[in-house]
Amino acid sequence: VQADTGHGFHSGDVPLTTMIYSDEPNRKYLRDPSRGNFATYDADTRRFYTDPDGDWADGTPTHPQTAAVDVQWATAATYDFYKQTFGYTLLYNSETSDGPSTLYAGVHEGDNLSNAYWSAQCHCMRFGDGDRTRTNSYTSLDVVAHEATHSVIARTAKLAYTGEAGGLNEATADIAGNLVEFFAANPADEPDYLVGEKVWKAGPLRYMDRPSRDGVSADCWSPAVGSLDVHRSSGVGNHAFYLLANGSGTSDWGDSPTCDGTTVTGVGRDTAARLWFHALTAQWTSATGYAEARAGMLAAATELYGQCGAEYRAVQAAWSGVAVTG
Ligand code: ASN
Ligand code: ZN
């Protein structure tokens, strides 16, 4: 196990755990044996990244290793977040219905691609470089943690990717992306309840405090929400999480209002995270929509904190605050 340094574009100067194979003593591989052997490859050449001296990339988007440093570091942070916060191990080496699989990440995907995704088929993540004019490389911490979280969802609630379950799926990925930002506390990437703020130059891709700030996402549940794109119906879940963690009227950027005009008192980010993750792993199923999300999280609150305590009532208030009533 090697302790190296990388120079990322979004992440800045970061530590990297890498390895050397005994039959190739003169090069290091961007592969982390301390975290399930997670590794990053070049989507064009399909080769894993190697380096002669362990000083990786130079922080510029033109150096081929730079995006790989961002992703490798961000995936390590995501791994540590899940392990330390929930005792959950991201199964990079795991059995799927197709046999053993490892969650690898490909960078420089496509041609100036302004997107990133997780694929159930390859059980891998892929990251585009952005067009460099309107977008940067899609390798920021919140984006990487978002994509890795799709693999967590696929192993737990298995939320569908359409309708309200799809919105809840996307919200879960956005929430985790932000929780990992808070966890990593990287001075190069301040935590903020914004999604993809380092990726799209004109502003964040999405806002959790008041999702409609992007002009298209939903703040509040309505019967129409289930027919929106999953990245827009996610607003209901993102907003509920924001209210649960922080309460209403707390945003620096707007006033984070509730949909029913009530005041919500937050339980704090750590408790909100614990409630959400417990609902995801123990209550929700593939067909869970927003009403079932509320019911499942109330059950989680009872399991974790007892019946009708402060946490239970905060969960009620947060979901009611986004117009998901019991
Ligand atoms: N970046 C998107 C996501 O992970 C890609 C997609 O539309 N599935 O949600
Ligand atoms: Zn997603």
From TrEMBL:
Cofactor(s) in the UniProt record: Zn(2+)
Enzyme class: hydrolase
Keywords in alphabetical order: Hydrolase, Metal-binding, Metalloprotease, Protease, Secreted, Signal, Zinc
Principal subcellular localization: secreted
Domain of life of the source: Bacteria
Subcellular compartments: Secreted
EC number: 3.4.24.-
Domain Peptidase M4 C-terminal span(s) in chain numbering: 157-324
Peptidase M4 domain sequence ranges: 5-153
Role noted for this protein: Extracellular zinc metalloprotease.
Family: Belongs to the peptidase M4 family.
The protein, known as: Neutral metalloproteinase
Species annotation: Nonomuraea rosea
Part of the whole protein covered: 162 to 487 of 493
